[in-house]
Amino acid sequence: MENELKYETVKHAILNQIHTGELHTGDKLPNEEDYMKLFNVSGITIRKALTELANEGYIVRIKRKGSFVNNPKITENQSHLIALILSAEDYYDSSYMKIIKGAQRMAAEFNYSLIVEWSNENLAIEQASIQKMLDRNVDGFLIYPFDPIKSIDNFKLIEQRNIPYVLVDRYNLNRPCYFAGCNNHDGAVLATRELIRLKHTKIKFAGYHFFLNSEQERYDGYCSAMRHAGLPVNDDNLLTSINYDSLAESILRHDITALFCSNDKLAVKVMKQLHERGIRIPQDVSIMGFDDWDNSRDLPVALSTVKQVFEEIGINAANLLINAILGKIQGGNTKVLSGVSLVMRDSTSENPYS
């Protein structure tokens, strides 16, 4: 009975600090050792008090980081569930698995569970997935949309419920949002500068889904690096619909010596198509990708590319969402970009015609 009274004394003392405003949302609580000295009780007593406060939603306990005050306005109806809606073209793409892994890892640190819903490229299926998760009373959404412009009405379903959501990898440039992705612009600058360093001046940019802001940002980075090097940039530099016969002829005429593809998927397709037309890589043309797929190094000609860390993007997305759920950030217009790096392999070489 005495131990029960001790842990309740600790619990009510912390609750009083929260209710009176002495402790605010997001504040970190003192560590267990400090509370043991303050209340002259054992560590077991402190842990029991903190566990009950966490179970009742007043605080959030994060492994290796400590305990933090939760938002009292939202704790009553919290489900501690987060939905990840993936509108994906290829369910077997390892990059999606890495995003999921990162998001799950971060969610678990905040005692949240992640529910994954696949909706391919169909807006109606995406909408049904969102409604299904709304019916489960999830606390927030991570959304990897196929086309964030066309998905606006689906996003409005979430906004009407005043539930936070974070877009992953792609967003609508004209619509404020929480977003987690990679630094597309700077990654493209790195790639283009490397091709220029290899004495390539006739470099084209090949798009895959150019309606996406991620590809447009990569193209902007390519253009920036080209202009900085004093190289011309015009509409002919951008390839959005590739005629591979014409492309092969341009390469054989040395009108194109390097191709920067907006992602590895396109780069792999380009390499295959050119190989079938007798074009040698990198002897006739250098190829650069973006993403660093798991199999990029295992191709017949290993692909040079820009590496983005997909698991880190998942971690950033879940962290951003949970901070929005807890009321630590507001306004719906925060973007977190993960870093990128250059990975040079066999598909690029110095321009032999320079």
Automatic annotation (TrEMBL):
Keywords assigned by UniProt, alphabetized: DNA-binding, Transcription, Transcription regulation
Domain spans labelled HTH gntR-type: 4-72
Gene Ontology molecular-function annotations: DNA-binding transcription factor activity; transcription cis-regulatory region binding
InterPro entries in the cross-refs: LacI/GalR-like_sensor (IPR046335), Peripla_BP_I (IPR028082), Tscrpt_reg_HTH_GntR (IPR000524), WH-like_DNA-bd_sf (IPR036388), WH_DNA-bd_sf (IPR036390)
Parts forming coiled coils: none
Pfam families with a match to the protein in the record: GntR, Peripla_BP_3
CDD domains named in the record: PBP1_LacI_sugar_binding-like (cd06267), WHTH_GntR (cd07377)
Name used for this protein in its record: DNA-binding transcriptional regulator CytR
Annotated organism of origin: Anaerocolumna chitinilytica
Phylogenetic lineage: Bacteria, Bacillati, Bacillota, Clostridia, Lachnospirales
